[in-house]
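[09:14] KT: can someone run the structure on this one? pasting the chain below
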Amino acid sequence: MFLIAGPCAIENREMVLLTAETLKRVCEQYEVKLYFKSSFDKANRTSCSQRGIGMDEGLKILQEVKSEFSLPIVTDVHESWQCEPVAQVADVLQIPAFLSRQTDLIQAAARTNKIVNIKKGQFMAPWDMQGAIDKVHAVGGQSIWLTERGSSFGYGRLVVDMTALVEMRQWGCPIVFDATHSVQQPSSQSGVTGGNRRMVPYLMRAALAVGVDGIFMEVHPNPDSAISDAANQVCLSDIETILKQAVQIDSLPKI
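[09:31] RB: done, C-alpha cells below
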C-alpha cells in the first residue's frame, strides 16, 4: 500500500511544510510509501469561494517539500497548458474527477511521461474508465493510476460501490481509493460542499479489505479552518491511528 496525502489546497507555506514533515515521520514509522499531495488551485468549485495560492507560488512550495523531505509530489491539473510546467515539479499529475472525460487534458498530462492519476468521475461507471486509459495510451503514455472517489447518489450524496475497485483492476493499473472525497456531501451547505470525516476510516478499511494499491487521504492540521473540503479532511493529529489500522488490514491476504 502507498499513501497519497496532504492538505486539499495549498493555503500557505508553513502549513504545508508542517503537514509534510508529520506525514513523512508517520509513514516512515509504518514503512508506507508517501506521495505528498496538495493543490495550487481548486478550480472545480460549487461557488466563487477561495481557490488556492496559484500555480507559480504553489509549485515553489511543492518544490520545497520535494527537496526538503525527499517526497514525490502529486498535484491537480485543470487545463492542458498547465501540464508541462507542473511536470517540472510533480511526479504524478492528477486529473480531477469532474475532468475525467477531458481528452485534451488527459493527453497533455500523458505526454509529460509522468504518472497520470485519473480520478473516476462521480457520474461514470467503472468500466467507462477504459476510454480514459485508451486516451493515455494513444499518445504513448504508460503510467496510469485509477482512483475511485464515490458515485453520485441523488442530490448532495455520494456512495461507494466497492465492486468498482474490482472492476477497474482488469486493466492492470494501480487502483487507489480516495477515502476523503468519498465522504463528501456535494453542495449540501448553502453552495459549499459538506462531508462526514468520521466515516473516512471505515471506508478506507473496507477498500483495503477488497484490495487496493493506494489510499488517497486529504489531511489538514485544523480541517475546520481549511479553505477547501473542510468537512471531510482528516485531522493531522489522527493520521497515525488511521495509518496503523490501514497497515494492519493491508497485511492480510487478498483473494
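[09:33] KT: thanks! The chain is about 35% helix and 20% strand.
[09:34] RB: yep, looked fine to me
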